[in-house]
Amino acid sequence: MKASDHVRTELADENADGRAGASDRKNGKTSGLSESSRTEKIRRAILLTILPLLAAILTGGLLILAFGENPFAFYGTIIDRGIVSSSGLQETLIRMAPLLLIAAGLIVAFSAGIWNLGGDGQFLFGASIVGGLAATVSDAMPRGLMLIFMLSMSAAVGAAWTIVPALMKARYGINEIITTLMMSAIGVNLASLSVKVWFLTGEQGLQIPRTRILDVSDRLPTLFGTRVHAGLVIGLVAVIALHLMMRHTTLGLRLNLLGANVKAARHAGLKVSKLIVVTFLLSGAFMGLAGGVEVLGVQGLVRAGFNPALGLVVVPLVFLARMNGWVTIAFVFLLSVLTIGGELATRQAGLPNDFGLLIVALVLIFMTIAEYFEARRVRGERTVWQTMSDRLLSRGRAGV
Amino acid sequence: MDAESTGSVRDSIAPLIEITGITKRFPGVLANDDISLSIEKSEVHCLLGENGAGKSTLISILSGMTRPDAGTILIEGIETEIDSPRQALDLGIGTVYQHATLVPTLTVLENLILGNTKGATLDETEGRRRLDELASILGADVDPNAVAGDLALDEQQVIEIIKALWKGKTALILDEPTAMLAPAGVAELEKMFQRLKADGLAIVFITHMLHEAIEMGDRVTVLRQGRVAGSIGPDELRSEHSERLRDRIVEIMFGSEAPEMGDVAELHVDVLEDHPDQGSLEEATSDAGGRSIGAPILKLDNVSLEASPASHGLHNINLTITEGEILGIAGVGGNGQAELAEVLAGQRRVDSGQIHLLHDGNLQRIDRLGVHARGQMGLRYVSDDRRGEATVGSMSVSINLVLKKIGDAPFWRRHIMQAGEIQRNAESAVENFDIRTPSADTNISKLSGGNIQKVILARETMSNPRIVIHNKPTHGLDVRTMLMVRERIRQMAAEGVSAVVISNHLEELLDLCDRFAVLSKGRVVGIVENGPDAERHIGDLMVGGAVS
To answer: Of A57, A228, A399, B305, which is the most exposed, with the fewest CB atoms less than 10 Å away?
Structure first.
């Protein structure tokens, strides 16, 4: 938990800074302080985001070169497919919807110091219930009502799947990393089983067991004549709302307090057990909603064994964004571009599909390294390089 | 201490450690500003200074935790850069920190050889030999197989010292080693210092207690605002009268404010111990005894908490505190003080018994209420764990000031935070309590212990307190802040706000309180009124209670 404590501290630093900036603006102060903090922010953005991104692109390029492919062509394809081409950009935005909702679920949990790593199970429960019931329910009620009902259902089952880890944590202090991962393993298989047993469509001649298809006309509405569905809006609203909630509401402060220091939370009179359960339920609800949105917006059905395994990919992003909603949105966009663009780029270059993930991993690693050096700089410590060079130069003198 | 003099003596008798021009700047603070001093063999070098004077930075530089921005360190005349704690240990410079560094679940021997192994296996035989050697130098009786977590605080400290000396015996640095010790433990520590000195070690010793510096130190250096404000050499320390020395140190510490600080009660009591014939103890406490006693405000009936392996629990505590009264909880630490404080604050539920608090004119039962509800009724708790419990280091001063009011107007309306109100509240607290902080938005972890204590005190005593529980309210504070805290407690009592003061320092309780309850193994073993014999009575009860 050391690492998470550290991240949380950094996060709260950020919070305090953010608040400071806000109050400065409110008071109409344009002092040198806010001026310098603005350049400081730009400097940090470059150092912590753009530099690592460039480093990852460079390293990835060298790897592509080592595979005998042209890195410029590879990255050209990623950018063209991920952002520039209209159909590619739409794919990217469609992919963002479930990722944003998963990120929302993680922001709640991580802010409160709770490691909900069971996102996949919660996601698939949300997906399966929608896949299993949406088509049938749509026969009984108008589309709008059906969509709201099914989205609520997906959130509810996602939340429900966290109850066991939540109570174990709240009552007995059992480590939720283990319990959520275990419940996720059960959930993934149970969701698949539910498709085979309860939600199986009556249609004949199926290769893979699946649920009934929801008519395209009954799915989430699309935006501005594109294929991008309303799930993107739901995801964006969720992340931004949470961002504001964590900073401006009682529940937000309570969760932050719980995450920062449980002892202090108890001292301040918070009902720690209740808060833990609330955190789990909220987190699970967003995970389930992510599953619901993916089925209602894109898939229209769920096949047995369906598991996009998005839960863990988002974890490092949310941490690197320090649970900041806006930064999370930017990171999720980047991840989507790299995955959508990467799918085509790897295929064209004849590289394994996992190569796209490799680029994502490189970005994450370089961002983490940048964070490390920045944190050391802030604490006024010397870098590894400085220490090493000092050692080499002053070996004789230091070895008294 | 200038270059000329050091140059001439280098060949003959270079100081063991000579620090020249050490400067360290942290964002917004010049923690060490051109500090020069020398640490000699077989000497106890006391570092004095208020919180934030730069003592901790200086020792963290010496122990390799922090690198100075400028300045040099000469060890036996050779310029040396201390890059890491490991290197400091290799140089024989060991540090004992305020916080425990032992792994509580491991044995003493395991703790010591951990991190000092060569290769993959633990060399127990060699470890035992080294432990015996160091224990005999210290004159301590150490069981290598005892589990570290089971040891008392002073026993743990001996292990910490042995651990610090494990790699080599050049210098031993101790950061406020006496803060958590009972008087007997302090005497024991002093004996160890003598033996280490005889062995040729240099000891650097940080303390807030002037009398300890005068009694134990061979050399005293006072830091003020990151600079060396002055020092007193061995000759003067040996020859001068302790009262004159005290005046000198106070003058160096506070400069022009010295006369005002000279009246510090803690200093009087300490000096009195040297001259028991003067007997002005009554004088120091007379103002406390003279207050009129009002109606009962807090009442405990048979309050009990079950004992556990880690705690004595509480057993049938019956206490009544009246309006404007200051009740002291005396006793050796770990005898139920923390449990009592938490039960009163509402952080812990009683297993049996009742607690009543005066509210709306009558005594209302509160033992089922939470922290927030009790706080609103005017019962407040100043925790002794400033950084770990009472505040959240990663949050701003202004938020820490309202942590116990989450959801309450005017700081929140319809669950939405009112940043302006919180800011205003913080500004008034900063002003009224003289909190030294760059701004109200600064993270509280960046503040010194004394200023954190002021934040906590502000939070707990602003907006109509009725009774405040103070757990070790001045622990680890510099004289100025300590005075301010005590004055605040007295002043509130004069306004009718009661206080329960828990402290390990009897002189503090004698200075502040009207009455004392002596705790031993979770029981109240006696109630003593403050007066000429109070100290002796309490001492008897503490000892008697411990024996039974």
So the answer is: A399
Q: Does A268 touch chain B (CB under 8 A)?
A: yes
The string over A330-352, giving b where at least 16 C-beta atoms fall within 10 Å of a residue's C-beta and e elsewhere, is ebbbbbbbbbbbbbbbbeebebe
pLDDT at B302 over 90: yes
Interchain proximity B406–A268, CB inside 8 Å: yes
Task: Tell me the one-letter amino acid at A102.
Answer: I
- Delineate the domains of chain A, giving CATH numbers in brackets: 2-20+39-381 (1.10.3470)
Q: Is the pLDDT of residue A114 over 60?
A: yes
Q: Find the closest chain B residue to A389 by CA distance.
A: B83
pLDDT band at B463 (very low <50, low <70, confident <90, very high): confident
> What are the tokens at B36?
């020069």
Q: How many angstroms separate the Cα of B436 from the Cα of each of A31, A102, A174, B275, B430?
A: 21, 42, 41, 37, 7
Q: Please list the residues that pair with B48 across neighbouring strands.
A: B222
B85 vs A: CB within 8 A:
no
The ipTM of this complex is 0.77
Is the Cβ pair B404, A20 closer than 8 Å?
no
Go through the domains of chain B in sequence order and give each one's CATH number.
3-262 (3.40.50.300), 290-378+464-547 (3.40.50.300)
A283 and chain B in contact, CB less than 8 A: no
Contact flag B78-A397 (C-beta cutoff 8 Å): yes
**Per-residue model confidence as pLDDT tens digits over B200-214:** 889 998 887 778 888
Asked if residue B479 lies in contact with residue B208, where contact means CB atoms within 8 angstroms, the answer is: yes
pLDDT at B259: 57
Closest Cα in chain A, distance from residue B25 (Å): 9
Preceding peptide of B104 cis, ω within 30°: no
Q: Is A12 on the interface with B (CB under 8 A)?
A: yes
Query: Which residue spans within A4-103 are E strands per DSSP?
Result: none
Nearest neighbour of A249 by CB, restricted to B370, B404, B415: B415
How many Å separate Cα B172 from the centre of its chain?
20
Q: What is the pLDDT of residues A347-364, one digit of tens each?
A: 888 888 778 788 888 988
Q: Does residue A108 carry a pLDDT above 90?
A: yes
Kindly identify which residue of chain B lies nearest to residue A261, measuring between CA atoms.
B392
Comparing CB atoms, the residue among A16, A253, A270 nearest residue B441 is: A16
pLDDT of residue A380: 63
pTM score, whole prediction: 0.73
Question: pLDDT by residue (tens digit) across B86-117?
Answer: 888 888 898 888 777 888 888 888 888 887 66
Å from A273 to nearest chain B CA? 13
A9 and B CB contact within 8 Å:
yes
Out of B87, B394, B412, closest to residue A8 by CB: B394
DSSP codes of every residue in B326-376: EEEEESSTTSSHHHHHHHHHTSS--SEEEEEEEETTEEEE-TTS-HHHHHH
Residue B238 contacts residue B244 (beta carbons within 8 Å): no
Mark yes or no for CB contact B419/A264 under 8 Å.
no
Q: Out of B78, B83, B381, whose CB is closest to A387?
A: B83
Q: Which helix (H) or strand (E) holds B228?
A: strand B227-232
- The residue type found at B493 is A
3-state secondary structure of B202: strand
Would you place residue B271 in the very low, low, confident or very high pLDDT band (cuts 50, 70, 90)?
very low
